TrEMBL record:
Signal peptide feature range: none
PANTHER family: DNA RECOMBINASE-RELATED, DNA-INVERTASE FROM LAMBDOID PROPHAGE
Name used for this protein in its record: DNA invertase Pin-like site-specific DNA recombinase
Statement: the UniProt record of this protein carries the keyword Coiled coil: yes
PROSITE patterns: RECOMBINASE_DNA_BIND, RECOMBINASES_3
Source taxonomy: Bacteria, Bacillati, Bacillota, Clostridia, Lachnospirales
Amino acid sequence: MPKIRDFDRVTALYERLSKDDEQQGESNSILNQKRFLEDFARKSGMTNIKHFTDDGYTGRNFNRPGFQAMLAEAEAGKIGTIIVKDMSRFGRNYLEVGFYTEILFPKKQIRFIAINNSVDSDKPQDNDFTPFLNIMNEWYAKDTSNKIKSIFLSRMSDGKRCSGSIPYGYNRLPEDKQTLVADPVASQVVKHIFELAAEGLTPPTIARQLTEEKVLIPSAYTLQYHPEQCNRKAEYGCTNWNANTVREILSRQEYLGHTVLRKTIGTNFKTDERRFATDEERLVFEDTHEPIVDSELWEQAHRRLKHATRRIKEGTHKEECLLPGLVYCADCGSKMSYQTNYYKSGEPYHSFRCSSYGNRTVNCTIHHISDKVLYQLVLRSIQRLSSHIIADECGFAEELKSKWEAQANGKPQKQKDELQTINRRLNELDRLIGSLYENFISGLLPEKQYKSLMKKYSTEQDSLESQVSEIQEKLEQTKASSAHIGRFIRLIKKYKQPAELTKEMACELIDKIVVHEATGKKPNRQQQVDIYYNFIGQFDLPLSEKEIAEARQKAEQEAAKKAKCKKNRQRESNVAHQAKAKAERWAANDGHKYPKRICEQCGKEFYPNSTRQRFCNTDCTKAHQQAEKEKKRFAEKGEHTFRQKVCKICGKPFWPSNGQEVLCSEECKAINRRQKQLAYYHRKQSGQKAGEAI
């Protein structure tokens, strides 16, 4: 790129006028500034003049189109001189003014002149007072900003609106711009939106329904019927609703008849950045105009929005959860997700588990609980509470009031002290972030460190703000309200002795359900579940002796039923295992019950009919038996015909020649004959003696 010669460079004349400067008369007008700068440039012999103008832009920052165009040409080296009427026209942020006049312009060899302040960069000896001028200009801008803030705050503290916009559904009275009246058409749309939200529809679903109904969006309605109140761009006749518009309508307390002011607060007068005001900083004036929705519809809609669930993708197993967004983990505080799993048989079953455990975002345990078990617990709690309230409404109200008073006197002071500590740290972080930005703009802090510290402070701010909301919620829970008790009694009467749990019943009666981690294993598994009701919080009724006995009996019946089911499952499992083993065995044996064997008699292969069969047929069996007999006989007799005997006379073993032979030799036979003869002789002698005696 060729270098631009000095005599070809532009003399930039910069003019700026803010809305605040318009009140100071004609001397600062754009036309007068142009004439003044042109006269100075002409008298100084400067040519190639070019004007850069910002009309209606503040000097607290440099996000101005005219200044940015001049800065782009300066960066390109096309500008040789910049002339302004005074330093306040150039800017009121002394850090950024100093950066341009002391660093950027000298680096680009640009001469800078502020006529009324006698500032000329070619005469550095006359510029010693310039930094103080910049500080005074910034102080003036800050002082003006603070004065305007105090004026607006004073007006808002009196309940007066300082904004030109009004909520959709209202109009201003022509004779009193501060008074709002309900628009007959738009107010019905607002009420319809709250009714849809109370039925459980989410903002995207409501937006789609309004689009299908061809309802004009707020800006299009205002443009068509109240153009004098339309202060934003709008497309005529547009009916394409956005979910964010629905969310904004549902969040506005003005529809309850309240005036809500100071919703945002400026954090830095230099950058015009704003933040959302806290509940303590916001100004709320109740019952200032006609409400469009009543408090019951408002709270019911917000309860349903709080527990709204995401849509299930098409094609997945869809089972409606009866406790949407109501179940929380007791340890990490996150919502518990509704899970669908399947048994081996393919039958689905549903349960709740900690979402942090599933997503691995926090080191938490599963906190698993079956949906049927939880539904039964909730239904039983509602039934018992309903019976208790219907039996004695006054006693229930007094009991609840005394409980709340005991809580209010016990623990809030510690939480209030903690809240004050967190708020002090938040204010300190705001100050640190502001000074961090100033150091970065002035070049005292490198960009890398700036981004690192900003990320650290922002993360800490988010964490502290979430803690503030939690503590405030806990403090609110300790406040007793007779109106809340009455509203809960009316709700519980609506669902008197319910036979089954429904989604509508749960969302109306229950605020949240806190599930603790289970202890022990089946059948001794125990799990604590805390149920918090809308308007009254947690309320536990002690069990009566009858209920304890019924619970014990039911537990025993459940245990017996589970044991019987377990036994049946074991039996079925055994039968299935045996059938499987039999089928595998028959398949391995080519359709036979037992595997092949070799016959011990003939040596052929055969399929036996039992585990003890050793021979292929009866012939082999008989042949084997005969062989065994002969083997046994041979073992006993050898080659003799008869088995070995023992001689009755000498006692020696011998092999007889016939089956009746009992004596081994002739000698033993002779001895046996003599013994018989002697025995005969003795019998005979004894018989004769007996005859003689007679």
